[in-house]
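The data are quoted verbatim for completeness:
=====
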Amino acid sequence: MNTKLKIYLVLFVIALLSCSENTNNIITDKPDTTNSNFALILCEGLWGYNNSTISKLNLMNFEVENDFTSRNNKNFKIGDIGNDIALKGDTFFVVVTTSKALEYFNVRDGKLIDYITFGENSAPRHIAVINDSVVGITDLYKDCVYILNIRSKKIEKVIPVGPAPEFVEYHKGMLYVANSGYGDYRAKEPKAGTLSVVDLKSMQEVSNVYLAPNPIEIVLDTNRGKIFVSYNHLPSLKDSVGGIIMLDLKNLIRLKQWNIQSPRSLNLDFSTGDLYFLSNGKVMKLNVETDELIDLVINTKGNEVWYSFGLDTKNKYILIGNAKNYTVEGDLLIFEKVNSIFRLVKTIPVGVNPSEILIKN
C-alpha cells in the first residue's frame, strides 16, 4: 500500500470517529424533562369513540410525543372520555369517566403501572392526590367521593357529598368538593350548588356551604388561605352568566365574587396570588385584591373553540388547548410573554378535544 493511500485511510477513520463523537454529544446534551419542564395534555376525545389520548410536551424545545401512553403500551388505550389528570412524583393518573376507570402511568416512559375499574352506574370524574398511596375521586352519578388505595386497589371509604360532584382538592387532611347539580338537571336537589368539606380523620362531610348554581372548578391558594370556585351559566336562568367566588380557606366565609362568563381552566400564580382562566374565547387575568381584570390573549377565529388553558410561570408561556370544532384533532397553542405582551410562538397538533393541561416545572 502506498503512502498516500495510507494517509487517506487514516484521515477517513478520524472523520468517522469525529462524527460518532459529535452524535453522542447531541444525544447526551438533549434536555431531560422527565422530572420537570414538561406538560401533559389530556385529550378527552369524543363520547363513544374510545379515543382519549395523552400528549407529552417538552417545554424546553417543544418536542411532543402524541398518544404517549398508547405508543408505549401495546394494545392499551386510555378509553372513553378522559376527564382529569394528576401527577405525584414519577406517576401520573388519568380518570376516565365513561370507561369507569382510574389508570396510572410512569411519567418518564408512559408505561402503564396499573388501573382500577369502578362498578356499574359509576362516573368517576375528578381526582385529588392525598399521598403516595391514597387518592380521592368524585363520582358524578353516585354523589360521593371515593377514598381509594392505589396500592391495594381497594376503596377504603365511600363518602356521600352533594349531587353531581365535580372538582375535588386536598389540603391538610381535608377534601374540598364542588357539588355542581349537573347544571339544570339536578339544580333543585338538596346540596346542589354547594361546597362540601370532608374530614379524612372522621371520613365524613363536616361542612357544607352554598356557593352558586353549577359550581365546577376549585383552586386552593394555600399561601394566602383562599379558595376559588368557578360556576357556570344555567340555560334556565336567562340572566345567569357564571362567575368566580373567593372564600376564606379556614372558615369558608365568602370574601368576594366576580360575575364572569363561563370561566374555565382556573390557574393560580402562587407567587402573586393572581388568577388566570379562559372566558368567552379569551385568556384573562384577575387581580383578586384590586379586582382588575385584563384580557391577555384573544381568540380571533370565531369558528375555533379554546377548550383548556395552562399557565407556565417559569418559562413565561401560556398554553391553550384549541379544540377547533370538537370533532377533529386539536392544536396546542403556545404563547410567550415578550415585553408584557403574549405572542404566538408555536402551534402543535395534539389529539381530539384537549381538555386538561398539566404543567410540571
